[in-house]
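Our collaborator T.R. sent over the components below with a one-line note: 'Predict the complex.' Nothing else. No constraints on interfaces, no templates requested, no preferences about which chain binds where. So this is a plain run: every listed entity goes in together, and whatever single assembly comes back becomes the starting point for the next discussion.
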Amino acid sequence: MKSYSIVAMLAAAFIAFPAIASAPLNYDDARHLLNRTGFGATDAEIRRMVGMTREEAARTLLAATRATAVTAPPAWTNDAGPLRYPRGENASDMERKQFQQEQIRDGLELRGWWLDEMLATPSPLTERMTLFWHNHFVSSQQKVKLAQLMYRQNVTLRAHALGRFGDLLHAIARDPAMVIYLDSAQNRKGAPNENFARELMELFTLGEGNYGEQDIKDAARAFTGWSLDRDSGRFVFRRFVHDYGSKTVLGRSGYFDGDDVLDILLAKAQTAEFITRKLWREFVSADPDEAEVKKIASRFRDSRYDIKVALEALLVSDAFYAKENRGVLVKSPVDLVVGTLKQFDLKPGGPVPFAVAAAAMGQNLFSPPNVKGWPGGEAWINTSTLLARKAFLDRLFRADDAGASMADASARAMTPVPKQVIAAGGVQESEIARRIRFMRAMERGLKSVQFDSAAWLAELDTTEQARAEAATRLLLAYAPQAAADPASAPLAMVRQIVLDAAYQLK
Amino acid sequence: MNRRDFLRFATGASVLPGAMLSTAGVAWATVPADARYRNLLVLIELKGGNDGLNTLVPYASPTYYALRPKLAIARDKVVKLSDAAGLHPALEPLLPLWNSRELAVLQGVGYPEPNLSHFRSIEIWDTASKSAEYLQEGWLTRTFAAAPTPADFAADGVIVGSSDLGPLAGAGTRAIALANTEQFLRQARLAIPEGNARNRALQHILKVEADIVQAASHLNADHAFSTEFPQGGFGNAIKTACQVIANRAGVAVVRVTLSGFDTHSGQSGTQARLLGELAGGLVALKSALVELDRWNDTLVLTYAEFGRRPKENLSNGTDHGTASVHFATGGRVAGGMYGEQPALDRLSGDGNTGYAIDFRSVYATVLDRWWGVPSTGPLGGRFAPLPILRA
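Returned assembly:
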């Protein structure tokens, strides 16, 4: 295995690199690379990358990627016992409500944990790719319910985030959250449920138009019996409900099981192209260059779907650094929230209010809107979500924090807000009253960060005259609506820059 | 017989009534620009694909009870509208609308060569495309591009409680998405519409900023209704919709979404709750519109990506289907049954029904008859309007 990957890397290196080494990265290039592959790069991070070649920079980022998180997960993720949830018809309403509130609370903690990890990780690219796969192999807590299973799926996504796409696909097909989300658990011989098979082809591998209804029907039969154990929540294959008959999928016939079908899909060029196109949209621009996509996709498939091979090819490409592709992607809500916290070195009392803020902007982690995921791009911005973004930034940079009231708010926000808020009223508290208490606690949490605008600006540049320019250059990927006035007060200057439309771009 | 032929066969009977009506809507075509869109459209999306068979129950059909041993609504629970069909018990609050002949029940609304994917099928509905045609813009976006709303309108349309713009998607419309009007107005002062757009993404953001400023200058949020709105998300969304409608500056369309209809398992409880919310919301909507004296110039339509498969699955749920039943209501709606009951004894190879009313005929009704703007351009062809409106 090891020797194979070295060969693959060498082969990829040989094909990928242009004959003439590219010019070293300048400040704008480095900022562009770091903001596209991570969250809100700081001035210091950018300066460390200036002077590297494209290849050195891409390899540095790819070499630092991880397969595990550095942040300790919520304590309940270590529960070894059977999953607790109301079973069957006998569960009382009380039990159900209690379960629901537990899952909401755990789910919030989970969102907070991931946000913390995005801030703390030494490899932001790892989290960006984990998020990319979360938005590809979508499962939502809205349907899965159990936060524990959503956590385990997140661990699986991260483990393979920069590994092999084939391994990831095989792992996800038997991932318990996915088994619930796309109804594999209900897929039985004689009564197939096509939900997983359909999305597998439409959204996970081939893309629409590259398969027929009959392919879906037979693929669904191949996955019959892929289920999960009700106590452990682990994947289990139920051979008594598996359809052992012959199937025909994409022109190939045989006594296929689910893994066979996945391999048939992986063998198709359309799968590599579909994934490469999506990576292009994530990292380069909204309009993939089809000729380039095909080239990179074939390299990707030849490398046995080594995700790093595809990523490296994209990150050293001329298209990635092209002037017309700078500042043309809309930041996702998570980009905006995590990036802002990072760029301004803001230390929240707790992460949950920030995960809730991203949800209000249209990106509720662990709960994408449907199996197609967040559509992204310009769809992130409409009147409602743009105002949510601006209100968030306005709240963060409304006043310089030095007063005792802020310390007080911070102390209150330090306690794990959701537990307190949701548990306090118990099940009897009306939903609306609980929601209001919750939103107030979230507001307090957002105010818990402290920001000293003068100190932050002073670190950027020594002369007052150059500060406006330096801050604009660091924070905006595109020319501002109106240039910041060097004479304005520090906080006013920062506010103007972050409320500029260009701050929504990367 | 291939799939296409089958559908033609299955729906053949329905072509006739449509053809008979096709002359009705054409005459009104051109309304002067400043008088357009005085009639309001309220769209209610039943997101996830509502099960039509348990919404309008064919309680006289033994086939229905055979297909649904667990999920069928018992005959004695059905709110009977005719000797063949009746409403799900949770829709009982709609009975007064039916009795006052303000509720049109549109049976078998669908389209040829149905797609069973949520995203693709709602895209087909939202863009009014053919099954195999990919269009970028919503059907209302195309309508407003061809026949703009008056400049003094607050917006073309307001999307309540969802950030997905559906039929208003695509460049060019003034679509406002908001969760509640007070918050919208509070935050709108942060919008900065100035600046030159030099790339597509920035262009989009600047346009949205300008839309916010325009809408905020017209809307206010303080109308006091005596109507009591139901508690919960959908009730709140209806209330917000009514706040928007209460403003003097016009909007042509308001869209509200009720989510959760994708009932692959455990359907009974979920659908009953959702239909209860829908009924409660519609009753409150009428009451508030009557207060505003807008009930007679409002047309309310439900829609969804598809219905569900007639045969229940083994998870006490139903899988993605095709045509479904929808409702139209309003002070000038000619109540009654339209279209046809699904032919449960003539299901397609994948177990689904044909359609009786093309959804684009519903849209043509809105464009030709309700707004008096030509429908053939925006809908990419001629579709016969339905006779569901009184003069």
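Summary for T.R.: The first helix of chain A runs from residue 2 to 16.
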